[in-house]
């Protein structure tokens, strides 16, 4: 949802930002408001859905994701705006028992720092998302705050850097059974986690119809991994809980660690104004105990904005 909010803010910070947001969203504001809609369909393939470190426990699956969003942009002045909206998303797996639906809201502020085409743009965004799974033990609420600076470099290239903080809060503390007595002190909900991320992104516009986005990010904080119970995996775990959807003897392990993520995409603008996007990505994570987790994905998506 935060990506949608950022993408549709115009290309054309202070203590007064909060007051500006309050005024802009108030019913007495007479500022111009523009409405936007987005519909997307994404098909992807992941070679390690649960981010397992054990080869025999890696689950491969294709995923179908459908997302619909409506959002608004309220212009505060020549170079700043407030953006807000909501989205509805569904995600279905072919070989993983955790289908989900989610609804999210987001609020963003953007200001261009100066006059001219190549001046940087500051953005601040907050989003909240409610996730509901067919396995209720996974239901949760996410919240994320993000600060970013972006700028164009000529007519064919732009880049950005961002800093974000993310919280994932499960509905309840799930019961953990089947663990040795020695591990009962960490038998808690492994899905209760938080992390901080720094990311850089760029996009090259090769022509009026083709562009090539890419990104690289580093995150530090909690990592979750799904696998069968193995004593070696529990040594560095901060929390362990049953993975109800996967069946008996499957657990979710939470570690402290870090992860690198990279993606490369190609986007083709179609004649009706929609776009077709092709992407590859990789996640390479390590716990503080030096357990390695990796995941690769391929995707193709169709996006329509109006």
Short recap of the structure:
This protein is mostly beta strands and 306 residues long. Helix content is 6%, strand content 58%. It has helices at 2-7, 17-25, 231-234; strands at residues 33-46, 61-75, 80-93, 100-112, 121-133, 140-152, 157-170, 193-205, 210-228, 239-242, 250-269, 275-287, 292-305.
Structure notes:
This protein is mainly beta and 306 residues long. It has a single domain, classed as Porin, CATH 2.40.160. 6% of the residues lie in helices and 58% in strands. It is built from 3 helices and 13 strands, in the order ααβββββββββαββββ. Strands 1-2-3-4-5-6-7-8-9-11-12-13 form a 12-stranded antiparallel barrel. The radius of gyration is 21 Å and the shape is elongated. The relative contact order is 0.15.
List the helices and strands and how they pair.
Layout: H1 2-7, H2 17-25, E1 33-46, E2 61-75, E3 80-93, E4 100-112, E5 121-133, E6 140-152, E7 157-170, E8 193-205, E9 210-228, H3 231-234, E10 239-242, E11 250-269, E12 275-287, E13 292-305
Antiparallel strand pairs: 1-2, 1-13, 2-3, 3-4, 4-5, 5-6, 6-7, 7-8, 8-9, 9-11, 10-11, 11-12, 12-13
